[in-house]
Amino acid sequence: MQTQGPSQPQGPSRRALFRGQFLTKPVAVIGDECLAEAGIFCRSCGDACAASAIHFRPRIGLPPQAFINEAACTGCGECIAACPGATIALGAARGGDIA
């Protein structure tokens, strides 16, 4: 008989996966190819976000950098459709960038 020790992380059950229940909710993830990283001013994703989960950090000499407030993100995907560079996708919450 095998038992899982406390050092092994326990994932969701097959039943939970079948029902669409995951350990973390899907959130928007902005890729490294964001137009702001290429020096192009763009706020399309922030304008499309009804939950106001996308904020912009000012940077000296560069356009503001977009970041996701994972606690506020609903995972609706509106920002994905609005992104002209197609650099936003839904992924697992990383626990970072929470304002």
Automatic annotation (TrEMBL):
It holds the Pfam family Fer4_7. Keywords: Iron, Iron-sulfur, Metal-binding. Transmembrane segments: none annotated. One of its GO terms (molecular function) is iron-sulfur cluster binding. PROSITE patterns: 4FE4S_FER_1 (PS00198), 4FE4S_FER_2 (PS51379). SUPFAM superfamilies: 4Fe-4S ferredoxins (SSF54862). InterPro entries: 4Fe4S_Fe-S-bd (IPR017896), 4Fe4S_Fe_S_CS (IPR017900). Residues 64-93 form the 4Fe-4S ferredoxin-type domain. This is 4Fe-4S ferredoxin-type domain-containing protein. It comes from Bradyrhizobium lablabi.
